[in-house]
Amino acid sequence: MYKYDQYDQAMVDARVEEFRDQTRRRIAGDMNDDQFKPLRLKNGLYLQLHAYMLRVAIPYGTLNSQQMRKLADIARKYDRGYGHFTTRQNLQYNWIKLEEAPDILAELATVEMHAIQTSGESIRNISADQYAGAAADEICDPRPWAELLRQATTFHPEFSYLPRKFKIAVISAKTDRAALRWHDCALRIVRNEAGEEGFEVYAGGGMGRTPFIAYPIRDFLPAKQIFSYLQAILRVWNLHARRDNIHKQRMKILVHELGEEEFRRQVEEEFQNFLALGTDFPQAEYDRIAAYFTPPPFETGLSEEIDRSDPDFALWVDRQVAPHKAPGYAIANISLKPIGGIGGDITADQMDVVADLAERYSFDDLRATHVQNLVLPHVRKADLYTVWQVLREAGLADANLDLVTDVIACPGLDYCSLANARSIPVAQEIQRRFADMDRQLDIGELKIKISGCINACGHHHAGHIGILGVDRKGTENYQLLLGGSGAEDTSQAKITGPGFDEAGIVDAVERTVERYRDLREPGERFLDTYRRVGLDPFKEAIYG
Amino acid sequence: MRILTGNDLKTGAVIWWTGQDWSLHVEDASDVGDHGEAVLAREDGARRVNGGYIVDAEATPKGPRPAHIKDRIRALGPTVRPDLTLKPADPTAGDWVI
Fold it and tell me: For the residues of B80-92, what is the DSSP string, one character each?
């Protein structure tokens, strides 16, 4: 993984001291909240319902065991013994004291971590395929490009006061594990007929109040021109964005209002200007960064066999283990979705367990996923049983990846100051309702995503079944949506009709699932059946 | 009744205006009537509260109960982590929120 050089470390250390001074001045009364708020947000520090919340960046979801142990230490020392993995592969602490925030940032800096650009009108943490560098189906490791873009855009003056936040994702497989087209700028590495590496570029995606799936604006962009093209996209948005209207500031609105063709025309025009400036990454710089992502020294001649004689382990292998590009290795997914637990939450002790496993069995490599789970990307198949035993001992061996209980839920009204309704209790009740493993396996792949407000941090627009919490005259109400996807078959979910109370929404989900079981044809996932039969049969089941 | 809440500047903890000072406990909150804005302006200026605002609440024998669920969750703590609320030993505390 990437290692800070002297410039990176100096910048992050200086930023910590800058924020320490800003915090001191705020507490001393030299700044009011209006002055201080944008400064703390630039350092990932929010004020939530119960306390300050610190969002720590995990670039493209990659971290090592030392970093995970530091996250555990911070959870114990400054928070309440746990952290929460988010839908942007970051980690949040919920109980932070302002007066201690600079110390936390200083501790993070010792392991090459920070909270810069995890909030505010900036280019947010760049997300990527959590299987990067390991996936059997990828063209190449997309992370060198993500890291180059991270370095080129961090602290870039033109991108420091953007009209609104801007989210980038990079993948290099046909299978989309990063909700690619729900990003402002989505990049998929492809090869052309000549075998040259380049990007499929999509622009204008996003969830929130007004969801849009990103439009394809370039079938093939030579890889070396990516920074020129990205700058062109941002320049067009920066020039035209509706800074006067908070609901129209995101780039997706501009792309929609200009129209796909006109947006593309303007980007291409700006692109020529940037190409002439010669700001793209030199080959030597790409090579320097790519060297940090050299594959680990995989052993050869390893057995492909996995002893499946323990049925619980065999089930975990079937659900949680994915193919690896290196013979004899596998990708192991760690569920953070225990039945009745809080999705994405992990205790400090569990963090230490996962860090130990990464260090011992996965070349010190660990990933966070946008589905709020973790991944050990490089595990020898022969070690899977040992890894599973350790995970089971730590309460981390649930076998529910992509099943009905693998629910994405935002923190909702239990923690978030923007939320209108609680998300977590709904997710927990759905998990309890469908806890039976045989039933889960019979239902098959079914992605439920819950947001506590229209900001859609819980990705409800992309849920096979989506749930949106709203405030209805002071009480929580939940709208049901069907048919969304954040995978390569991206689609936007549709609202079924009137909303439900907390108990009613879980009943509605169950009626939806049962109707699917009645209607499905052999081999059909929930989403396949929905797309074949449409909304009406489900509405009939839901509303009678 | 109308009560005042906000967050402690240094710790971020949820606090409630008692009439003289700020308390962690909503039961201590006092009715500010029409004086809420003035109190908030003074307390904000003195850096004793951050992000203060006025809350409609119902007077009950056990003290004020905020009208909106968001403020009741703020007052007690997350409904999904009773152990982290202000009343971890009271299994019925969450009923007050919902």
Answer: T-GGGSS-TT-TT
Q: For residue B3, what are the β-bridge partners?
A: B55
Q: What is the pLDDT of residues A133-142, one digit of tens each?
A: 999 999 999 9
A354 located within any domain: yes
- Helix or strand or coil: residue A533? helix
Whether B12 and A52 lie within 8 Å, measured CB to CB: yes
DSSP string, A221-262: EEGGGHHHHHHHHHHHHHHH--TT-GGG-SHHHHHHHH-HHH
pLDDT digits (tens, 9 = 90+) for A107-158: 999 999 999 999 989 999 999 999 999 999 999 999 999 999 999 999 999 9
The domain that holds A272 is classified in CATH as: 3.30.413.10
Q: Which residues on chain A are in Cβ contact (under 8 Å) with B68?
A: 474
> Considering the domain boundaries, does residue A402 fall inside one?
no
Query: Is position A126 within any domain?
Result: no
Neighbours of A394 (CB within 10 A): 19
> Same domain for A352 and A451?
no
- Give the count of domains, chain A: 4
Q: What whole-number distance in Å separates Cα of residue A335 and Cα of residue A368? A: 11
* Domain final residue pick, A352, A368, A393: A393
Q: Which H or E run contains A267? A: helix A260-277
CA distance A100 to A370: 28
CATH number at residue A65: 3.90.480.20
CA distance A13 to chain B (A): 23
Last residue of a domain, one of A359, A393, A427: A393
CB of B13 within 8 Å of any CB in chain A?
yes
Q: Across the interface, do A99 and B10 touch by the CB < 8 Å criterion?
A: yes
8 Å CB contact of A27 and B50: no
Pairing of the two strands A168-171 and A185-191 = parallel
The span from the first CA to the last CA of chain B, in angstroms, equals 20
In a shared domain, residues A178 and A256? yes
Nearest CA to A386 out of A376, A371, A401 is that of A376
Assessment of whether the complete model's pTM goes beyond 0.90: yes
A160 and A251 housed in the same domain: yes
Q: Which domain holds residue A439?
A: 408-543
pLDDT tens digit sequence for A38-48: 999 999 999 99
Asked if A85 and A123 touch (Cβ cutoff 8 Å), the reply is no
Residues in chain A whose Cβ is within 8 Å of chain B: 26-27, 29, 32-33, 47, 49-52, 80, 95-99, 342, 413-415, 419, 422, 424-425, 428, 474-476
Chain A contact for B77, CB < 8 A?
A: yes
A192 and A89, same domain (yes or no)? no
Tokens of B88: 């971890």
Considering the domain architecture, whether residues A153 and A278 belong to the same structural domain is answered as yes
